[in-house]
Amino acid sequence: MTTPVVTAPVVSLRERKKLATRRLLRGAALHLVAEYGMANVTVEDIAAAADVSPRTFFNYFPSKEAALFGGNDPDRASVLRDRVAHEAPGEPALAALRIVLAQDAQDMADELRSLGGDPADWLKRMKIAR
Hints:
Layout: H1 13-36, H2 43-49, H3 54-60, H4 64-69, H5 76-87, H6 93-114, H7 119-129
Helix pairs in contact: 1-2, 5-6, 6-7
């Protein structure tokens, strides 16, 4: 019996560009805050470091805090709830929650890794900034 191959969905060029811009802005925010401190960095500084306009910054994040710490997805709780309900069928609720949150943490680590460097270092920077 062969196992079906699961392929990742094809992501459009537009979505890849949006993701690249989001990562660029987040990386710039993390770098600037780590170097100058939260109080000394503005949205304008972050936008300039990413070579975009402040307006473009606000298309991706509502604030510099959101760029640093996430929190820009108001639907996150409902998405996680739906994932718990659908991604681990037959599992007890706590086991399903553990599976989904472990994958969510892995996704976050992958996102931080995509910024370059060690995700643990980025988390330390975020904690210092917070």
